Amino acid sequence: MSGRNVPIPGRYLTFHLGASHYAVPIAVVREVVRMCPITAVPQMPDYVRGVINLRGTVLAVLDLRAKFRMEPIEYNDRACIIVLEHRAGGRLAQIGAIVDAVDDVIVIGAAQLAAPPDFAGAVEGRFLAGVATTADQVRAVLAMDEILASDVSVELPDFQSLSTHTGTGVS
Amino acid sequence: MTADSIGAADIDPSGVLPVETAAALLERLAEELAFVTAGSSDGLLPVNALMMDLEHLPGLSTAGPLAEGLVVARRWLDELLDGEGLFTPSVIQNLHAWHDWVFDYLVARESGRPMVALPVQWRLPVSAPPQAAVLPTAPPTVARPPAAPPAAHAATSAVAEADSPSFQLRLPDDIELLREFHSESLELLRSIEASVLALEEGSAGPDVVNAIFRAFHTFKGSAGFLQLEALRDFAHQLESLLDEVRSGRLAVSRRVIDAILAGADVLAACVVDVGHQVSGAMPVQPIRMAVAPVLVLVRRALVADSAPEVESTPNPTPTSGIVPSDGPSGAANAIQLDRAETFVRVDAGKLDALVNLVGELVITQAFVLENRELKGADNLELGYAIRKLQRITRELQHNALSMRMVPISGLFRKMSRLVRDLGASLGKQARLVVIGEETELDRHLVEQMGDVLVHMIRNALDHGVETPDERVAAGKEPMATIRLTAAHAHGGVLIEVADDGRGINDGAVYARAVEKRLVDPHHDLTREERLALIFLPGFTTASAVTDVSGRGVGMDVVKGNIEALRGHVDIATEMGRGTTFSIRLPLTLSQIDGFLIRVSGERYILSSAAVRECFRPGPQSLSTVHERGEMVDVRGRQVPMLRLAPLLGLRTPAATAQTGIIVLLDTGAGERAVLVDEVLGKQEVIIKNLGDTFVGQTLVTGGAILADGRVALILDAEALARHPVRVMPVRGDVA
After folding, report:
1. How far is the C-alpha of B580 from the C-alpha of B565, rounded, in Å?
2. Does the distance separating the beta carbons of B689 and A51 come in below 8 Å?
3. pLDDT > 90? residue B597
4. Residues A92-134 pLDDT 10s
5. Residues with Cβ < 8 Å from B721, sequence gap 6 or more?
6. How close does chain B come to A48, measured CA to CA in Å?
7. Tell me, what CATH number does B390's domain have?
């Protein structure tokens, strides 16, 4: 599984949900749009918030908080929808992910990236592509393809408590 | 059938003949032959085209039984084409036998077994005398004249006879055929022109000569088929000239090229006139052909052979791509050719893109017009401009959509062949009556409906229609009638497949379904519900699997296909009288005319094709029936009521039965009185796919972007109508 590989250094979009910070490679990000009215779709798990109109196309939108089994909050005007490109059934598809706020686009070097710690074989480990440790923050690099391919909500392992070990785990 | 044996034997690399191609052509030929009937012209042109493909197979030797066989078959076909263009029983019989012979021959050839010789009786030109009588001026054979002189003589003698012959169109009888002939011929002539120019550049090989020859031959065939004798004969002269070149008896020279181009120009001018007369731009009158100068050129070209000029690689200088014809007439005709083009072939993808863009335009316009500032503006000029814009947009949308509409006639025509062929193979007599074939609908729908209709007609013939004896015993005429009807109805299209056969016994259907464990035997079903069981997967009533229904497709697939097109199918049947399947389809797949409704603050769209009426229920019209849930009284009928809000998972309180509106859905799946808060209006929307994320859900067929830019879901009316109704929703239990 690709989960044991170190993520590729480069530009990452960073965002946060509450106190947890995340990064996704900029290559999978199509754009970031402001929170807009979402039309709910029936018969879907709660993390599928519904659909929005993205310049004439209908885009499915997930609530990342719900997807990661976090407490729901009232989104304020910093909330964004990150439009991600992912592989689904061999085809490229787009999907929106609601986050509390987008932080920045940063360059993460090889020295700052580590393979995800081994969570004793926990299934959730595969949703992490790695851990990025910069001066100010420890971020989970998300394996978006894995996360989006899972059709249930997922619990991310607690990567922050392990950051001190992973900080030196450069291979 | 035997195609496999051909394919397997084809591994042998020694064969130069592309046997697989030949086998494929023969198979198609067999298919076409299966449909031809004596006294009809149906299938003559496809058969002719396939025969020509066989004649032009690369690697085909000019001697040997196969070549001989092709000459024989060509003779039969040309007799038909040069005659009335109608199949005769003897030719049909001969062609069938011929097909079998060729197949046997190829199989033997490939497997190294002794080859079957050409049957002796075919070697003699059986009906040569009558043909000569019909066409005294035409040379006896077409594809392979035995030698050069006859063709040359034919060409020259015709010059003396007719300087400007003419032909008359059979209008309006042949209008459809002529319209097709017109557009097809323009294309042929254009390809001829392009090929001739390539020939002149010297860059062309024998393929190009063959292509030109074939194009003229096809033209001739079509003209003959439409009984445009003068046109046919003239094309024949040109074809003969090409045949000389093709056979190597005449080299490609400037004179040959001039003659061909001039000839093509004359034909083009005639075809343009045909187009004008078909479209009504010109009164129907004999069309004269100025053939004399061309025939002089043809004669000169033929004579040139004996006194060769400098032409081994003709004329490398003129490479500008302009038609090097003498004088302006050629160029003028070419221009006319373009202008007269009333049909343009367009990439279907481009058309779809245009229709989608127009859809976006309509939405964006609505969005702009909803703008508060614009709405509040008190400006006469602006108001006028807006109304004009709206009108133009509407017309643009209408036009764009109509471009994708095609008449259903092509589809229906195929079915009439199917009925004839299948009826005979099942030992039944049936004829097809077609009504409303001019009805237009979305091209995509026509394409998708092909399989559906084939299966339904197969089904009708196989299960519905009785044998002639049974019919006579039941007091019916031995010939059954299958009626195929198309009509516009309720903003969609209604297609009916009706037979006057034995009808469907709902009791037998039910028993069968119980036996197959498709239905719970303790469950009471209405007659309609019992009939609908035939649409269940795994249901088939044919006790013996026949050749016809053995193709592995049941009515469940038919229903599935129809529903995938947002349509639905109903059955009406009467024992001993017959069965009618009614298919209701939308006009197009990309748009939907819908009711915009509101439930708990959310807006949804319901296809107006499924909505029978909307009304406010009176206090007395609601009742709760034990175990069957809430019912609404609709003029004395009790219709199950469906509360949308809980079904759609909406938590905000919705309207009560007293404050809400009932939308009465009527679909093939059933009837439901749907309780909504409000009906906001009726509008056309573009259907947007929701994407793979939502494949699991069943209540929504798509999304639509409303004027305010938000997405509204399009509810699946069929799914709602099928949804069980309960007073108290019970999780996980669907009774």
Report:
1. 20
2. no
3. yes
4. 889 999 999 999 999 999 999 988 776 655 667 778 888 899 8
5. B610, B665, B666, B667, B669, B670, B671, B672
6. 9
7. 1.10.287
